[in-house]
Amino acid sequence: MLREFVFQFILWFANTVQTITGFAGNLLAMPFSIRVVGMQDAKTVINLFSMFGCLVVAVQGRRLIRWRILGKILLCMIVGMSVGVCLAELVPEGQLLLIYAVLVILIAVRKLCWKRDFDLPEWFMVCVLFVAGIIHGMFLSGGALLVVYALSVLPHKDEFRATVATVWIVLDGILAVVYGFQGHYTVLNIERIGVSMLALVLSALAGNYLYHRMNQEMFQILTYVLILISGLSLLL
């Protein structure tokens, strides 16, 4: 019972962050959730939960979605995600956890310590999107690399938030179908998804409230500190 309560709290907190920033929810939720319910159960529930949460954000900002940019992102990431799903089935879970932990820590340290951004060639940015898709297919956490591209083409935070949220709706929807064919929707996971709707509503309310009132830069610093802690927890 305590384990399920902790899992629901993680979902609530992560989606509050996701509602504010448009990203980082899954990246923040997955490391802690893996320790609580296991990797595949965490991926199955968080994927659907994230999709519903992003749907709220996308509907609110539907007039701000940049459709041409959205199409380019989805094309690159869907191809990468198909590779990531296959790799996740082939690589042993212990090795996946180690790779994932190192990845999360590197992303957090980079964002906390290396503030300067560079103009990168288009071909390189396309490769970044492809790798983001691979990571999302394996770990449900491709958001950090997607942000590298999205920030370069979506400087306005409202357009960024609405467009990136729509990316997750599509990608998480595809993964939801894949997980269904793989038989990951157990009775327990369906119950978890049903219970999580309360956390979804509460996190959407909290996230929207903070989005309009909180200093976004400071909140993102806090977010990456928590992501760093979550990555380190996987190494313990």
Unreliable runs = none
Please write the string of helix (H) and strand (E) elements: HHHHHHHHHH
Largest sheet: none
Q: Distance N terminus to C terminus?
A: 24 Å
Number of helices: 10
The portion of residues forming beta strands comes to under 5%
Mean pLDDT: 86
In total, the number of strands is 0
Structural class: mainly alpha
Rough outline: globular
**Helical amount among residues, as a percent range?**
over 70%
Q: Give the C-alpha Rg.
A: 16 Å
Name its key features.
single chain; 236 residues; mainly alpha
Question: Could you explain how this protein is built, in words?
Answer:
The protein is mostly helical and 236 residues long. It contains ten helices and no strands. It has helices at 2-21, 25-37, 39-60, 67-90, 93-113, 122-139, 143-153, 157-181, 187-211, 216-233. The two termini are 24 Å apart.
Q: What's the helix and strand layout?
A:
Blueprint: H1 2-21, H2 25-37, H3 39-60, H4 67-90, H5 93-113, H6 122-139, H7 143-153, H8 157-181, H9 187-211, H10 216-233
Helix pairs in contact: 1-2, 1-3, 1-9, 2-3, 2-10, 3-8, 3-9, 4-6, 4-8, 5-10, 6-7
Summarize the structure.
The protein has 10 helices and no strands. The two termini are 24 Å apart.
